[in-house]
Amino acid sequence: MMPHPEEPHYEPWSERLGQILEEADDPLVVVGHSLGGSVVLKHLADGGDSEPIARLLLLETPFWGREEEWELEWALPEGWTAAETALPPTFLFHGRDDEEIPFSHLELYAKVLPDAEVHPLEGTGHLLDRGDLSEILDAIRGQADG
Question: What sign for the dihedral angle of Cα 136, 112, 105, 126?
């Protein structure tokens, strides 16, 4: 569990993620939903160890800008490119009907993560509480079966 989920901040969440990854005995399939996806990706961009991660799934992840001061806490490092970070196989999932995070954020991530598999979803909503989630399950199972 992440520290203070009711009042999240990047640094303590990143530190906790680092502890979880360090304690892993086996490769992990890491699934980051919404803000959690932002934290995982920024953690790796900031130099976090990706070796324990077999696959990374980013679901409904906001792409943070730099227009507002508060966004900087969650935004990827300025000028960062995926080429400078050893990322695990990465899968991007985003619903066209996400009522919280605009669908256009999927395209923004696809540009900065050119090797990621991109999966637009239909009818799943932000919380993924409806619709067909089989693509997400297949991506998770792909590692479990491999």
Answer: positive
Q: With contact defined as beta carbons under 8 Å apart, do 53 and 41 qualify?
A: no
Q: Which two tokens stand for residue 97?
A: 């009907």
Task: Determine contact, residues 95/60, Cβ cutoff 8 Å.
Answer: yes
pTM of the entire predicted model? 0.94
- What is the share, in percent, of the chain residues with pLDDT greater than 90? 94
Q: Ramachandran region of residue 79, left (φ > 0), alpha (ψ -120 to 50) or beta?
A: left
Q: Cα separation of 141 and 146, whole Å?
A: 8
- The CA distances from residue 117 to 18, 33, 90, 94, 110, in Å, are 24, 16, 6, 12, 8
